[in-house]
Amino acid sequence: MKLLTLARDLKRRKARERHALFVAEGVRAVEALLDSGHPVRGALVTTPRAGEEADPTASRRAALLDRLAAAGVPVHEVTDTEFASAADTESPQGVLAIGSIPHWTPEDRPPVTTVLVLDAVQDPGNVGTIVRTAAALGVDVTIALPGTVDVWNAKVVRSAMGALFTHPVMPLSWEDATRWLTDREVALWVADTAGTSLAEAATARPPRLALVVANEGAGVSPHVAAAAHRQVAIPMRAGVESLNVAVATGILLYTLTSRPS
Fold first, then answer.
1. Whether 19 contacts 6, CB under 8 Å
2. What is the residue range of 207's domain?
3. What distance in Å separates the CA atoms of residue 26 and residue 89, rounded to the nearest whole number?
4. Which of 125, 145, 169, 255 is most deeply buried (CB count within 10 A of its CB)?
5. 39 shares its domain with 153
6. C-alpha distance across the termini of the chain, in Å
7. What pLDDT was estimated at residue 54?
8. Which parts of the chain have pLDDT scores under 70?
9. Are 31 and 65 in contact (CB under 8 A)?
10. What is the CATH number of the domain that holds 47?
């Protein structure tokens, strides 16, 4: 399959799952993909235009193309129209790469201290930001339960800013997730506005903890809430109903994790 056709096909979740491939768009995302060492199937670039050298990203883009060539990655030049048909963003900087999806499995993971669980979090920008935050704050692994957006959606990849290439994210059923957590004696806490104050809960944090965050509107799924050992809440002033899930997750993780020095 031609790279352009493949990149267009990978805009669909079923195609990403079938091929075990994803698209990284933009200079920074492709740089991070190369840095990660994950296999890169190929790249698409637009034809240089007159005056493009004045673009502040032009030199960085040129260096990236040199890196792709040095790594033996096939690079195909396409028109702006062809590129737009494969890209998800309005301004993707004229470069995208097709990479292999890392295959993280529960059996691969060493003993864990902190796990993040996404319960039907559907906004791709939020999920990418959450994964990036989890990686920064030392979370060992993130579990994506059913109903959560595909983490290899192009917008998730872009928002994660390279974190998806190094931080393990495992899509698991609720049954597989609970079995995995139980086998490792990981306590399950859920974020809920009716829970214990975060500051108070943090003083009783168990050695192995899984924190569940959910869709802002729907909240935690009933079966997940029923299995929780504790509910925790971020204290807020009266009149504020809730926080954006990515913001809330950052506050919760910052408080509950042993932050890297």
1. yes
2. 106-256
3. 9
4. 169
5. no
6. 46
7. 59
8. 1, 49-55, 91-92, 108-110, 258-261
9. no
10. 3.30.1330.30
Which positions ≥6 away from 213 have C-beta within 8 Å? 116, 117, 118, 119, 121, 130, 191, 245, 248, 249, 252
> How confident is the model at residue 1, as a pLDDT?
67
Distance set, CA 17 to CA 9, 39, 99, 102, 153 (Å): 11, 16, 13, 12, 11
Give the position of tokens 């059923």: 173
What is the token pair recorded at 94? 């004229």
pLDDT of residue 111: 78
113 in the same domain as 84: no
User: Total domain count for the chain?
Assistant: 2
What span, in angstroms and rounded, lies between the C-alpha atoms of 122 and 158? 15
130 and 86 part of one domain: no
In 146-174, which positions are buried (b, 16+ CB within 10 angstroms) versus exposed (e)? Answer: eebbbbbbbbbbbbbbbbbbebbbbbbeb
Judge contact between 162 and 28, C-beta under 8 A: yes
Closest alpha carbon to 151 in 166, 171, 167: 171
Q: Give the contacts of 184 (CB within 8 A, at least 6 positions apart).
A: 111, 112, 208
DSSP three-state, residue 99: strand
Answer yes or no: do 82 and 129 share one domain: no
In which region does residue 171 sit, left (phi positive, over 0), alpha (psi from -120 to 50) or beta (all else)? beta
Task: Name the 3-class secondary structure at 76.
Answer: strand
Which residues in the chain belong to E strands, given as ranges? 21-25, 40-46, 75-78, 95-100, 114-119, 141-144, 169-171, 187-197, 209-214, 230-233
Count of residues making up the chain: 261
Burial class (CB in 10 A: 0-12, 13-18, 19+), 85: middle
